């Protein structure tokens, strides 16, 4: 009886330990893949809400769309990650920031390396 119980426990442990084996290891994404997508930040600015949408495309193109009251402006550029820093070039200006993901990659905090000002972005699905 003890052998049957021991074998049963070992089989149960084996089943539990192997239950995660069907999961794909492809779920680990590079930082480039994690950045790629549409991010948004809304802020109260001069009496109204200003929304800034950041679009990081997989081809390393970049677009910023600023919506404020009845105004809508768009700027294009490029982006890359080098030495764990996000580098954005937009209209002949290059900005470099440290970045950090949180909230299961749904929040991206970028801190400008010069001004030390942080911007918190939320990923859009």
Strand content: over 45%
Provide the number of structural domains. 1
Reported CATH architecture: Beta Barrel
The radius of gyration computed from the alpha-carbon positions, rounded to a whole number of angstroms, is 23 Å
Query: What class do helices, strands and sheet pairing give?
Result: alpha+beta
Mean pLDDT figure? 83
Instruction: Report, as a whole number of angstroms, the end-to-end distance.
Output: 55 Å
CATH topology: Lipocalin
SSE pattern, N- to C-terminal:
HHEEEEEEEE
Q: State the fourth-level CATH superfamily.
A: Uncharacterised protein PF14869 family, DUF4488
In short:
With 125 residues, this protein is an alpha+beta fold.
Structure in words:
This protein has helices at residues 2-18, 31-35; strands at 37-45, 48-56, 61-68, 71-82, 85-90, 93-102, 107-112, 118-123. Helix content is 18%, strand content 53%. The chain is α+β, with helices and mostly antiparallel strands and 125 residues long. A hairpin with a 2-residue loop joins strand 1 (37-45) and strand 2 (48-56). The protein has one domain (34-123): Lipocalin (Beta Barrel). It starts with a helix and ends with a strand. An eight-stranded antiparallel β-barrel has the order 1-2-3-4-5-6-7-8.
């Amino acid at each position: 009886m003890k052998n049957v119980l021991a074998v049963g426990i070992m089989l149960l442990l084996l089943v539990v330990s192997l239950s995660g084996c069907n999961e794909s290891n492809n779920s680990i994404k590079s930082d480039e893949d994690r950045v790629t997508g549409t991010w948004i930040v809304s802020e109260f600015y001069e009496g109204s809400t200003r929304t800034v949408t950041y679009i990081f495309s997989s081809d390393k193109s970049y677009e910023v769309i600023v919506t404020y009251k009845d105004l809508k402006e768009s700027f294009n550029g490029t982006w890359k990650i080098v030495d764990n820093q996000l580098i954005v070039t937009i209209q002949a200006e290059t900005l470099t920031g440290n970045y950090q993901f949180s909230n299961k990659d749904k929040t991206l905090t970028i801190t400008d390396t010069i001004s030390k000002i942080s911007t918190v972005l939320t990923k859009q699905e």
